Every structure is written in C-alpha cells, then in structure tokens.
Amino acid sequence: MNPYELRLSLLNMARDMLETQHRAQVQSWELMEKFTEDYPYPKFPTFQDILDRAAEMNKFISESK
User: Fold this and answer.
1) Alpha-carbon torsion (38, 41, 45, 46), positive or negative
2) 58 near 19, Cβ under 8 Å?
3) What is the CA radius of gyration of the chain?
4) What is the pLDDT of residues 12-41, one digit of tens each?
5) CA-CA distance, 51 to 35, in Å (whole number)?
6) Reduced to 3 states, what is the DSSP secondary structure of residue 46?
7) Would you say 32 and 42 are in contact if contact means Cβ atoms under 8 Å apart?
8) What is the pTM of this model?
9) What is the C-alpha to C-alpha distance for residues 57 and 6, in angstroms, rounded to an integer?
10) What count of other Cβ atoms lies within 10 Å of the Cβ of residue 49?
11) I need a surface site. Which of 20, 28, 50, 62 has the fewest CB within 10 A?
12) Rounded distance, CA 64 to CA 17, Å?
C-alpha cells in the first residue's frame, strides 16, 4: 500500500467511524424526542471532523513503543 492509499484508507475509516457514531446519536435522539422537547438533533460530522479523527488515528498508528 503506498502512502496515498494509506491516507485514503485512514480517511475512509475515520468517516465510517464518525458516521456510525452519528447514526447511534440519531437513534438516541429519536428515543429522547419522545420524552423531551429540548434534546438537540446531533450534527453530522464535517470534513474537518473526519480529518481530525484521521489525524488522531495516524498519530496512534505512528507511535512506536
């Protein structure tokens, strides 16, 4: 895997993680909406959120112990 493919893979993993988290938050929102009116709708992850998560993952992977 070349560096470009690795970066793309990290971005895809980060996006998938954040979208899964968002779906879970939406399910919680749907449940909470029945009991309270002030429960805010979860925001969808932005491209910057995805970049930040990918950077965190890259930092973790790059750490050598």
Assistant:
1) negative
2) no
3) 16
4) 999 999 999 999 999 999 999 888 878 899
5) 35
6) coil
7) no
8) 0.85
9) 12
10) 16
11) 62
12) 24
